[in-house]
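Retro notes (design track)

What went well: tokenization of the new backbones is finally stable.
What didn't: we kept losing track of which sequence belonged to which structure.
Fix going forward: every design gets posted as structure first, then sequence, in one message. First example under the new rule, 158 residues:
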């Protein structure tokens, strides 16, 4: 085998290993919705549609809130699924220090919405949300992500 062919084979093997390691069998859906730079309007609804095939498995549903340091509050309220559910969570601690992961001028905060949730039927499902803060234009929020994971993998069971 020539040196060039050996290098190509090695690169392909490494690339395959990285791709296989990157595959997360626990995550069944991820999606991100950006919000306008001038502010997230109170009436602006973010919506995700996703497919669920296995209703016997419990799922964790997480929201990933991304914001800048311009976000003015310690907490956030969200109305989900046509105001059917309301959740509050904290983005900063009592001293005003941001919680979550920082990078590139933003903070990403995972928020557990449902734990061990079982979908009633297989097929397409929709989740929608809007902010529930008093301010009409919520500044500093850059977007919201949705992640749906099989709960059993989070607990180390398979």
């Amino acid at each position: 085998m020539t040196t060039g062919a050996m290098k190509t084979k090695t690169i392909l093997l490494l690339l395959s290993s990285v791709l296989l390691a990157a595959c997360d069998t626990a995550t069944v859906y991820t999606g991100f919705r950006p919000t306008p730079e001038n502010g997230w309007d109170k009436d602006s609804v973010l919506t995700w549609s996703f497919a669920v095939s296995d209703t016997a498995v419990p799922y964790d549903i997480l929201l990933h809130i991304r914001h800048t340091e311009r976000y003015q509050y310690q907490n956030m309220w969200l109305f989900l699924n046509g105001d059917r559910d309301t959740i509050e969570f904290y983005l900063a601690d009592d001293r005003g220090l941001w919680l979550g992961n920082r990078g590139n001028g933003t903070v990403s905060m995972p928020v557990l919405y449902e734990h061990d949730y079982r979908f009633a039927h297989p097929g397409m499902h929709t989740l929608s949300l809007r902010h529930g803060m008093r301010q009409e234009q919520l500044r500093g929020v850059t977007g919201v992500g949705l992640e749906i994971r099989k709960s059993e993998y989070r607990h180390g069971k398979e």
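Added context from the reviewer: The domain at 26-154 is CATH 2.60.120 (Jelly Rolls).
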